[in-house]
Amino acid sequence: MFDHPASYLNGTAPLNVTVTGYFSGLWAWSTKTKPPAQIFKISAMLLATLVCAIAVSGVHGVGVRPGQIKHLVTFGDSYTDVVATGDQGTAWPVYAAGYSKTALHPFARSGATCSNNITFRPFPPVFESQLPLYFTETGNGSLRLPPDETIYTLWIGTNDVGVDSLVTGSNNASIVDVAGCMVNWVRTLYASGARNFIMQNMIPLELTILYSANSYPNRFWAIERNTTDWSVLMTEMVLAGNMLTKLMLQALAPTLPGSHIAIFDSHSLIQDMFDHPALYLNGTAPLNVTGCWDSCVAPFGGGNLVCTVQNGTDRDSYLWADELHPSEQADRIIAREMALTLEGGTSKWSTWLN
Question: What is the pTM of this model?
Answer without folding.
Answer: 0.85
